[in-house]
Amino acid sequence: MRLATYTLAPGGECAVYFFGAGRGGSVDANLDRWIGQFLQADGKPSKSAAKIDKRTIHGLPVTTLDVSGAYTGMGGPKGASSSGAQSDALAMPNYRMLAAVVEGPQGSVFFKFTGPAKTIAANQAAFDKMLASIGPVR
Predict the structure, then answer these.
(1) What is the per-residue DSSP string for 75-111?
(2) Under a CB-based contact definition with an 8 Å cutoff, are residues 79 and 90 in contact?
(3) Phi-psi group of 11: left, alpha or beta (phi > 0 → left; psi -120 to 50 → alpha; rest → beta)
(4) How many CB atoms lie within 10 A of CB 86?
(5) Taking the C-alpha atoms of 57, 28, 113 and 117 in order, what is their torsion angle to the nearest 10 degrees?
(6) What is the pLDDT of residue 9?
(7) d(C-alpha 46, C-alpha 48), whole Å
């Protein structure tokens, strides 16, 4: 379930999701899906261009993702053809995603910050600061 959506001009969006304990998919499944939403100009898989990092913040495991390229979105009419394949023609070039999965005792919290690469770069420090503030509920 989407808990919050924050919009940043021009064109940035940070969505926060929480599904409960054992729900929402594994860390790797989410990373793979998010990476798959990007196309690379050279035709190489986006996984080779993605940066994945694992760390602990206030005792919670956190996995982060940084990936850029042409963003195809989440699928549906804007991101998929009638066969379900992602459409190159509808991809938004020069996009970037910063994402994080915070593994908490009540379930994982998913953060997905997407938008034009310039917008994401200008707000990367704020995204990192938000992640650094996360801690277990007391």
Answers:
(1) SHHHHB-TTSPBPSTT-EEEEEEEEEEEEETTEEEEE
(2) yes
(3) left
(4) 17
(5) 110
(6) 84
(7) 5
Residues counted in the chain: 138
Q: What would the two tokens of residue 99 be? A: 């994402």
Q: Are 110 and 24 in contact (CB under 8 A)?
A: yes
Query: Dihedrals φ, ψ of 82, to 5°?
Result: -65, -20
Phi, psi angle pair for 61, to nearest 5°: -65, 130
First-residue to last-residue Cα distance in the chain: 23
pLDDT tens-digit map of 84-130: 445 566 899 999 999 999 999 999 999 999 999 999 999 999 999 99
3-state helix, strand, coil in the chain (%, to 5): 25, 45, 35
CB 97 within 8 A of CB 14: no
Quick: pLDDT tens for 68-82: 999 998 643 334 443
Q: In this structure, what token pair is assigned to residue 16? A: 């926060």
